[in-house]
Amino acid sequence: MKSVNLKELALQLNLSISTVSKALNDSYEITPETKRRVQELADALHYQPNPYARSLRKQKSKTIAVIIPEIANNFFTLAINGIESIARQHGYHVLIYLTHEDYQKEVEITQLLQNGRVDGVLMSLSSNNNENEHLYDLHKKMLPLVFFDRVFEDLEAAKVTTDDYESGYKATAHLIEQGCRRIAHLAIPKDLSIGKKRMQGYMQALNDHQIPVQEDLIIACTDNQQMNYAFIRELMERKDRPDGIFASVEKLAINTYQACAELHIPIPEEVKVISFANLETAAFLNPSLTTITQPAFEIGKQAASILFEAIKMKNIKNHYSILKSVLIKRKSTGC
């Protein structure tokens, strides 16, 4: 059966949409006779109010948006689970928007969300984020906004992330402790907060252990997996190839395993590998992968908790939370 809306009721009753709406909401402005007519027709046509439209009139959509660059990364899967666990407690729905690492897509999504569609936004930036005017525009709308993982440092908004600098340092120092001296860093764009901090941790660990930073061992990777694989294979085909690899995200570690398998380079005997990763299968890879594992679920929960506090108080706080990641040693680094 086709649903009936307010406009159709108004047409049949020869009343304005506003009058019909007020009658259905038992407004004192409407006469009892008009209320009776409206209600009788609504019952006869099985009219059902639109809960989304009603919530908009109350200035609450009971919905939040989560903007993420990808879904294949296990970090974001776990973070969304954490976000949804808090949203359910507040009786909210979660809309997930994927930018696919596309800056223009990110701009379009933020513009879409400025029209009252959602009560708040949780956001992790795309890697191709060249300008940030759209973020300032979103913030000016006074829409509660919380960044998580990939944050925009220059905007006064709440942020929840992990200890990327310390973890980058820890990962590199672990490879050094395992005997590595030519350590390559498979980096994500330095424009991203996490890329910059993981790179800084890597470089500081080398400096503290009197190992020169070699620019040719820093591989600037992209969101193109085929291109990344080509970069890594070329790196491993060098005569002076690295004896240790620090991958900034899990998909680059998988590319490394693939390249080493095809080139018959044994891990960890000839090259040791460590990566930021939330892969549940990390322990079952051959060899098992040593990881810096982020508290993704907790990051999602905390980001959502801060957002709902902002929605409740109608106040956007400049809050910054840093949660600790954990180094899990496995066979890929000889442990």
Automatic annotation (TrEMBL):
Q: Which SMART domains match?
A: HTH_LACI
Q: Which InterPro entries match?
A: HTH_LacI, Lambda_DNA-bd_dom_sf, Peripla_BP/Lac1_sug-bd_dom, Peripla_BP_I
- Please give the Pfam families that the UniProt record associates with this protein: LacI, Peripla_BP_1
Does the keyword section mention Metal-binding? no
Output this protein's name: LacI family transcriptional regulator
**Keyword set for this entry?**
DNA-binding, Transcription, Transcription regulation
User: What SUPFAM superfamilies does the database record attribute to this sequence?
Assistant: lambda repressor-like DNA-binding domains, Periplasmic binding protein-like I
Tell me the ranges covered by the HTH lacI-type domain, including all copies: 4-58
Protein's UniProt keywords contain Transcription = yes
Question: Which superkingdom?
Answer: Bacteria
